[in-house]
Amino acid sequence: MIVEDIDINVRSIDELIGQFYKAGGFSAKKIGVAADIIEEMVKENYFIFLTFPACIIATGTRGVIKELVKERVINAIITTCGSLDHDLARCFKNYYHGTFDANDEELHKKGINRLGNIFIPNESYGEIIEKKIHEIFEGKEGKYSSKEIAWEIGRNLKEDSFLYWAWKNGIPIYIPAITDGAVGWQLWMMSQEKQLEIDVFKDEKELADIFFDREKIGGIILGGGVSKHHLIWWAQFHGGLDAAVYITSAVEWDGSLSGARMKEAISWGKVKEKAKQVTVEGDATVLFPLLIASLFERIR
Question: What is residue 117's three-state secondary structure?
């Protein structure tokens, strides 16, 4: 296959993604490969997991995830507690543009938290989360899985929330590290005064059923950490993922899970030897919207 020049006079995002593949070079071709793998997962009825860290939900990329859930393109999500935090908070309060170069001491004095180049005032995070979690779980007791907590929150949110659409469409959200964030911490505080427990084993039973029963399982993985690992950990009991697209900005040479390329998981039996898989190096807030916009043009 010869290298072709990119013609910028395109009429659609998908056409541009196709030209990225034909251009042959570096990450551009990987984006084209990723688009084809995601399309195959959707059209061939894979059970598709989407995994991501919480920081994504603090940005406008939250809207891309909301559309995937709303349109039932994906089948399940694995994420971190902060995703509940940010989705809940942004339904009631605003986050703001900031800068990586801000004076963090001055921000702290002003009650502003910095997440990269996003500014989050205290009233837009901890204060509103505490208020709403107490309202949502007022009078409720018993054992909740992390999925049930996510759905209960989503049931009380607005249509710009990905949690709302997950609840509405019955798409499970699993949060293995549910206590590592504001929502989990508030629930722990409430548990000191009443019978309220988190039962993560209920989530694990559901995941076991998925991985032992489904014929083909794929993953769209943004960033690393517990979200990525929980998916590929369970995938080994399926014989490995059947297809995977991984977007990461982490380096490989430090040995981290976030930096580990998708092919490394083959050695662990977490991705099948013949699986269609690709790692795309770059910022998910740029690459992921491009890929999903291309996908929607292909399947609609």
Answer: coil
The C-alpha atoms of residue 203 and residue 148 are separated, in whole angstroms, by 9
Where do the DSSP E strands lie in 157-258? 173-174, 196-198, 217-222, 241-248
Q: DSSP letter string over 34-88?
A: HHHHHHHHHHTT-EEEEE--GGGGGSTTHHHHHHHHHTT--SEEE--HHHHHHHH
Q: Is pTM, for the whole model, over 0.85?
A: yes
Catalytic residue numbers, as ranges: 270
Average pLDDT of each block of 10 consecutive residues along the chain (300 residues)?
94 96 95 98 98 98 98 98 98 98 98 98 97 96 98 97 98 97 97 96 98 98 97 98 98 96 98 98 98 97
Which candidate, 244, 171, 180, places its Cα nearest to that of 210? 171
Classify 15 in phi/psi space as left (phi over 0), alpha (psi -120 to 50) or beta. alpha
